[in-house]
Amino acid sequence: MELGILTEGINEVIATTAGACRKDESRGESESTTTTNTGNDALPLRPNAAPMGIFCRKGRIRMRVYRGTHTEENMRRNGWVVANVTHDPVVFVETAFGDIGADRFTEITHEGTTFWRLKDCEAWAAFRCTVLHVSEDLSVFELHPVAEEIISCEVHPHNRGFSSVIDATILGTRYVMFNDPAMLEKIRYHRDIALKCGSERERIAIKKLDEVIGISVD
User: Fold this and answer.
1) Within the chain, how many helices (H) and strands (E) appear?
2) What is the DSSP code (8-state) at residue 143?
3) What percentage of the chain has pLDDT greater than the value 70?
4) Rounded to two decimals, what is the model's pTM?
5) CB 86 within 8 A of CB 118
6) Whole-angstrom distance between the N-terminal and C-terminal Cα of the chain?
7) Are 199 and 163 in contact (CB under 8 A)?
């Protein structure tokens, strides 16, 4: 299978999906970022974004997603996901711990299906997805590429600060989910690298991470 914009290994992306709004959320949604399910009691769809790792091994593309998350529920229900490539570390922190506004998504349509991508992503790839395996904690999906686009060809020299924001964010989600104090030492390690090696965006991302997880790591 062609990997397209993805590469062999684990690709850290922002995954966008869509799920039905709750009834108290459906009013005021922008028409440009919602669509309607079929059925008399249909509610608008609300786009969702979350950092995810996409596994590319020996030509196969897979995702392992925690059960009960919006991303997992939306993928199982709708059968699609969009991988967004971005080098903005702040977006990884924002989408890991909360929802971003509908105005930060853009609709795309392929063969009659509407998907959502991040408005400010540098590239995106849309996939059909099928469930391979379900355990108590995880759902494993096989991804099948259907469309992609490279929006920006800007070159990004590797920055250790950016990589450490990604690692600290992943550890932060595990700290919040499992309340595991062992994560704190690892968060401190990557936090220090991000502050030392990163740009202003990495420093903003780390500050947001400090606030979101509700701890002081100094």
Assistant:
1) 5, 8
2) E
3) 86
4) 0.86
5) yes
6) 46
7) no
